[in-house]
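Before the break, one more example. Copy the sequence into your notebook; we will annotate it together after we see the structure.
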Amino acid sequence: GDVKVCEAMRELFQDERNKGISEGIGIGRAEEKFETSISFLHSIMVNLNFNVDQAMDALSIDEKDRDFYREKLASLSKN
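Here is what the structure looks like once it is written out:
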């Protein structure tokens, strides 16, 4: 009785822990993708003398994401 309940609870917590780890990895990968894209955008702008819109066109960045990248690039130029 009690042993089965403990086993079930342990499995439940393990499943939730694994789900949390997977979500964390997914978030980390998304952040890495954005950081890489920002680095590429900056390099294109500097090396090819493109403006921000031309650089985003070159990388085929979705319209819905462009404001995010503009903000990140603006904060880079302030540093």
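DSSP finds three helices and no strands in the chain. The radius of gyration is 21 Å. Try to locate both features in your own notes.
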